[in-house]
């Protein structure tokens, strides 16, 4: 059952969640680079199911231990016992389930283009098989990445406590710096490069699996720093997740650009503004013609 804070967080999440899905629909209608309109509706249903399960579940899915103490040696000495305590409070199956729910809620809209490439670009009788293999490989890579990210969140708690820096502030700083780097943009660019998929046979299965792995690796490279943020809130906070999901969606709508240092979200916001302005100008033109 949600506490008062949990209920207020849930209300805020629902508001962001509605805006999030509206932006998905707007992107699909406008033919954005990163989203494909034909494959988006079923992916939105999966995302909706993930968000519903997160909102209907307990107020927290993962409990991380609080690391206190001014001594860095004490904090470092508490690292492995603290991780063990976290595993005691969160059995591995619960951690994996929480992470998979997080992926199910946040990631499906980002997969619209790869799923459309596999579904409508291949042989009809192999569509479901190709998409299924892609999803298996994609989730497997992100699950391994989740293990690293959860361990990293525990390490950030310890090191932040030793330095007297709040874990959320440290993670936010790391995420901001990563968002400005050429490697971040290079990873986003890879998300816009669908490979050639063999039409049939073992080669088609291999290509689908490889596409899932390569897409997941590119997505991890683009998203890992932002995905750390919900993990250091001491629970999978739905409001934080919804904000991060909206940022990831906004980024994915932008076209591929040269990999260089730049301020985060400037170009995606400009692209969204241009799209909105184009839609409004088209609407007014239709009104004048009618």
How would the blueprint of this fold be written?
Blueprint: H1 4-30, H2 40-56, H3 72-77, H4 79-89, H5 92-106, H6 112-121, H7 127-163, H8 167-179, H9 182-190, H10 201-231, H11 238-253, H12 266-289
The number of distinct structural domains comes to 1
Average pLDDT confidence is 79
The fraction of residues in strands falls at under 5%
Number of strands: 0
Alpha-beta content class: mainly alpha
Shape: globular
Calculate the terminal CA-CA distance, rounded to whole Å.
54 Å
| Helix count from the secondary structure assignment | 12
3D structure, described in words:
This protein is mainly α and 290 residues long. The chain has one domain. It is globular, with a radius of gyration of 20 Å. 33% of the residues are buried. It is built from twelve helices and no strands.
Briefly characterize the structure.
This protein has helices spanning 4-30, 40-56, 72-77, 79-89, 92-106, 112-121, 127-163, 167-179, 182-190, 201-231, 238-253, 266-289. With 290 residues, it is mostly helical.
């Amino acid at each position: 059952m949600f506490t008062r804070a949990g209920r207020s967080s849930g209300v805020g999440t629902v508001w962001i969640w509605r805006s999030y899905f509206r932006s998905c629909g707007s992107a699909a209608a406008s033919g954005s680079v990163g989203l494909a309109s034909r494959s988006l509706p079923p992916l939105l249903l999966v995302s909706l199911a993930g968000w519903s399960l997160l909102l209907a579940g307990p107020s927290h899915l993962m409990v991380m231990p609080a690391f206190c103490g001014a001594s860095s040696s004490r904090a470092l000495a508490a690292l492995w016992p603290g991780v063990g305590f976290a595993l005691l409070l969160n059995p591995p199956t619960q951690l994996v389930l929480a992470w998979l729910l997080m992926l199910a809620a946040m990631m499906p809209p980002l997969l619209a283009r790869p799923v459309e490439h596999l579904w409508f670009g291949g042989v009809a009788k192999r569509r479901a098989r190709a998409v299924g293999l892609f999803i298996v490989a994609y989730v497997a890579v992100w699950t391994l990445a989740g293990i690293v990210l959860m361990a990293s969140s525990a390490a950030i708690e310890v090191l932040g406590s030793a330095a007297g820096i709040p874990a959320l502030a440290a993670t936010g700083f790391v995420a901001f710096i990563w968002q400005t780097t050429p490697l971040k943009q290079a990873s986003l660019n890879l998300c816009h490069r669908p490979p050639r998929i063999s039409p049939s046979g073992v080669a088609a299965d291999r290509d689908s699996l490889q596409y899932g792995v390569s897409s997941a690796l590119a997505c991890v490279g683009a998203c890992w720093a932002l995905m750390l943020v919900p993990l250091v809130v001491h629970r999978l906070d739905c409001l934080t997740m919804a904000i991060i999901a909206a940022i990831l969606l906004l980024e994915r709508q932008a076209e591929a650009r040269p990999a260089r240092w730049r301020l985060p979200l400037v170009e995606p916001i400009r692209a969204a503004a241009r799209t909105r302005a184009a839609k409004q100008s088209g609407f007014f033109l239709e009104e004048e013609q009618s």
